[in-house]
Amino acid sequence: MAAVKQTIEERKLAICETGIHGHGLASLEYPRYRFHALRADHDALKVVGDEFRTGMVFAFNIDLYDPAWRNGETGCVFAETVRITPTGAERMHAFSTKFQTIAC
Predict the structure, then answer these.
(1) What is the rounded CA–CA span in Å between residue 70 and residue 65?
(2) What phi, psi does 43 have (nearest 5°)?
(3) SS3 of the chain
(4) CA–CA separation, 72 vs 61, rounded Å?
(5) What distance in Å separates the CA atoms of residue 49 and residue 30, rounded to the nearest whole number?
(6) Could you tell me the pTM of the whole model?
(7) Structural domain boundaries of the chain?
(8) pLDDT tens column, 31-87
(9) Counting beta carbons within 10 angstroms of the beta carbon of residue 83, is it exposed (0 to 12), middle (13 to 18) or buried (19 or more)?
(10) How many CA atoms, within 13 angstroms, populate the side-chain half-sphere of residue 55?
(11) Are 45 and 21 in contact (CB under 8 A)?
């Protein structure tokens, strides 16, 4: 997570949210690890546990914005949703994960 944060800051972007969290009947379910709320999440994980089990669904996301563009009032979410299977994590869609650069 520190390397991700460093890369973001080097590009003069800012983070709304970065991390992983469960998806079930609600969003932001535990186990979750959010860079901007590590202490709160670590304290909660002591109570609820941090085991990933088959059938769980997680979102990995990076929500970024550029403070210098439109007063930082808009941003972009980069996310991946995965399901935990007996053999590991499985992507729940087939969209490309390759970034595209567009002219501004």
Answers:
(1) 10
(2) -65, -40
(3) CHHHHHHHHHCCCEEEEEEEEEECCCEEEEEEEEHHHHHHHHHHHHHHCCCCCCCCEEEEEEEEECCCCHHHCCEEEEEEEEEEECCEEEECCCCCCCCCCCCC
(4) 19
(5) 8
(6) 0.66
(7) 2-91
(8) 777 777 777 777 777 777 778 889 988 888 888 889 998 888 888 888 888 999 999
(9) middle
(10) 1
(11) no
